[in-house]
Each structure stands twice: as structure tokens, then as C-alpha cells.
Structure to design on (375 residues):
């Protein structure tokens, strides 16, 4: 895969994908490291890498992740997590992560990560969250110094196979006024339903704290149901397999006629946001039922039916991608234009874990940016 060049234009315009104002909702901190930084951080702590050549290491991540299996995809994180166990490592990774969002035209981003995976060298949970926040704030200062602006919130994540959900939920709420905007569960989806973390979700509901849940990626409709009814999720992390609840009745040259099951109808009618990540969904086999190319992704079906679709990178390192690249791939596959790309960003702005006034301001900034791009 090749990242979108900074000068690649949206078809029919003189506007680059990278220059468009964007919102990133599903973007993992431990999936967005720079290969060169991994090498330097690993050298400082004596951590062994598959390669100490920057390009070879980048290729290793992409090739290892491109397996069609979520467990194999997740195994690449052993390397990135290995260099994110100190305050210095977390501050640097978080700062560069946000710097790279700014370079990609992101004006609001949510950084999701699991503090419980960063404790092997003595950090406490709170110290880990504080370290990431320090890096985020340094990057916001970097952007301001360069005449740019970005808002960033942390999504504190609990690993669904572990038994720390309530503890991590309490951590998230403890930092709600110090950078943390929401809660997530991630990791191996199949066999670890949201109901296993019910105590955490009950606590979060009583705290009026927003939740997104990984669901509908490595497991199907039952996982999505669990995210909605046990997790009280306001958004679905991926959620692509909601398309399993859509039957295509018939097609002609101009139209596709479908029937929605009750779950798909609920997700659509309640405008529950889908955090779709096209390249990642290909790599992990999440869309294997529909095909193995971007054009086979049910993204366009969901969009045309009125679902709240958003475009996300998931793990920029593993997929060698960015939001700009994902938008370019979708534009090429489905002939989208500037107005379509704006809808995806407005959907994301409406779903951001922000107060309503801030979401309205974010939507205005997006609309202003797209209006200028189309002029």
C-alpha cells in the first residue's frame, strides 16, 4: 500500500485530500507509530526488533498485518507496545501521533489506547494516561506554533479478554476533565462479548460517560447487539458486519432493492455511528463475506441506505494509511465527489464525544473548509 501524496487532488477539483478538514474517530495510538521512532525507542531500552532498517520495518508491519486474520493482525502490536512502556516513550509517541494527524488535515481526533498494556516498566495507570496527555498537549502546541489547530481527546480502552474493565472505566472517568473523552473495549472480539464487561458499562452509564465498542469486525450481529444493549454504545467500532443484516432482494441497472433486519434498521434509524476503516477491514478479513477489494466493501451500500458512516484509519502503521488515503481509496472505488466526502466528515463531527456546542462549531469548520475547497 502507498500513502496518499500530499499533492493528490480530489477528482474534478484543485483541492488535495490532505488539505480537507477531517475528523478521526477510530485511530489507535499503538497502531500509529513512526517506524523510525520505533527503532530509536527500541534501541534506548534494548528491545529487539524484526529489523532496524526503517523501510524494512515498515514493510514488516504491513506484511504481517495483511493476513486476513484479526488475531494475526493484533500480534504486530507486541512490537509497538514494547516501546511504549515508559513515560518518555508514551509522550513521544502521543506527540508524533497528533503531529501526523495535523499533517493529514485532521482538526479533531480521538486517540484510543489501553493503559493497562503499558505498565511493564513501572508506570501506574494514572501515570500512563498523564504521559499520553502530555504528548497530546505538546503536539497541540506544535500545531499552534505552525498556524494550525486541532482538538484531541483520549479514548481510554479496556482489553476485552482481561478482567479489568471496571478498573479501567473508573480510570477513564477519573480523567474526564483532563483529556479523556470516552471509553472503549478492544482486543479479540470473538468469544469475549461486551456482556463480560457489564460492571464497567453499568458504572459508565451511571456516570453519563460516553462509550464506543469494537463490534461487528471479527464477530457478527450478536456482538453488535451486545455493544448496543450491554455496552450502551453510542458508536460502533467498525460495525461493518451490520451489513449481514441486510438482504439484497434484487438489482437492476440503476437500483438495488434491499430489506433491513430489525438490528440494521435500529442502527440506521437511531443514527448509531459506524466507525468504518476500509483498509483495515480488508486486512483482518472483516469483509471476507463480500470480497477482498475496497470496491467489495459494504461501505457504499451502507452510505446509500442512510447509515451514519465515517471513515477512519484504525492503525496507520499496520495499514500504511491515513484518513486522506482512505478517502482516496473510497473515491476511486465508488466515484465519490467533494460533497460525499463532506458528509463523511459531518457524520464524524456529529458523533464526536464533545458537548453539542463544540460539535456544532466543528461542523461549521468542516463546512467552511469544504466550501472553500469547492470554490
Amino acid at each position: 500500500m502507498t500513502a496518499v501524496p500530499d499533492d493528490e487532488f480530489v477528482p474534478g477539483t484543485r483541492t488535495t485530500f490532505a488539505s480537507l478538514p477531517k475528523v478521526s474517530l477510530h485511530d489507535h495510538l499503538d497502531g500509529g507509530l513512526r517506524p523510525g521512532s520505533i527503532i530509536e525507542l527500541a534501541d534506548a531500552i534494548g528491545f529487539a526488533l524484526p529489523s532496524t532498517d526503517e523501510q524494512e520495518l515498515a514493510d514488516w508491519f504491513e506484511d504481517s498485518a495483511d493476513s486476513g486474520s484479526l488475531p494475526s493482525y493484533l500480534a504486530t502490536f507486541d512490537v509497538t507496545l514494547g516501546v511504549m512502556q515508559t513515560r518518555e516513550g508514551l509522550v513521544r509517541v502521543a506527540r508524533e501521533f497528533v503531529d501526523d494527524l495535523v499533517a493529514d488535515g485532521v482538526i479533531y481526533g480521538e486517540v484510543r489506547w489501553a493503559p493497562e498494556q503499558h505498565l511493564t516498566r513501572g508506570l501506574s495507570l494514572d501515570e500512563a494516561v498523564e504521559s499520553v496527555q502530555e504528548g497530546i498537549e505538546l503536539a497541540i502546541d506544535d500545531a499552534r506554533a505552525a498556524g494550525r489547530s486541532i482538538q484531541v481527546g483520549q479514548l481510554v480502552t479496556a482489553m476485552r479478554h482481561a478482567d479489568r474493565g471496571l478498573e479501567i472505566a473508573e480510570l477513564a472517568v477519573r480523567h474526564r476533565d483532563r483529556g479523556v473523552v470516552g471509553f472503549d473495549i478492544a482486543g479479540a472480539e470473538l468469544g469475549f462479548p461486551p456482556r463480560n464487561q457489564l460492571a464497567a458499562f453499568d458504572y459508565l452509564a451511571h456516570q453519563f460517560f460516553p462509550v464506543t465498542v469494537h463490534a461487528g469486525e471479527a464477530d457478527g450481529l450478536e456482538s453488535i447487539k451486545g455493544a448496543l444493549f450491554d455496552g450502551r454504545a453510542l458508536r460502533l467500532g467498525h460495525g461493518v458486519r451490520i451489513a449481514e443484516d441486510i438482504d439484497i432482494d434484487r438489482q437492476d441497472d440503476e437500483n438495488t432493492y434491499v430489506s433491513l433486519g430489525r438490528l440494521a434498521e435500529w442502527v440506521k434509524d437511531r443514527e448509531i455511528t459506524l466507525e468504518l476503516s476500509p483498509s483495515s477491514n480488508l486486512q483482518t478479513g472483516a469483509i471476507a463475506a463480500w470480497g477482498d477489494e475496497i470496491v467489495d466493501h459494504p461501505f457504499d451500500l451502507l452510505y446509500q441506505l442512510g447509515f451514519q458512516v465515517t471513515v477512519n484509519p484504525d492503525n496507520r502503521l499496520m495499514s500504511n494509511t491515513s484518513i486522506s488515503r482512505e478517502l482516496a481509496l473510497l473515491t476511486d472505488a465508488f466515484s465519490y465527489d467533494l460533497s460525499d466526502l463532506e458528509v463523511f466528515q459531518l457524520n464524524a463531527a456529529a458523533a464526536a464525544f464533545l458537548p453539542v456546542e463544540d460539535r456544532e462549531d466543528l461542523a461549521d469548520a468542516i463546512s467552511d473548509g469544504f466550501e472553500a475547497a469547492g470554490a
User: Anything to note?
Assistant: The mean pLDDT is 95. The beta strands are 22-28, 106-113, 151-159, 180-186, 212-215, 235-238, 246-251, 256-260, 273-276, 309-311.
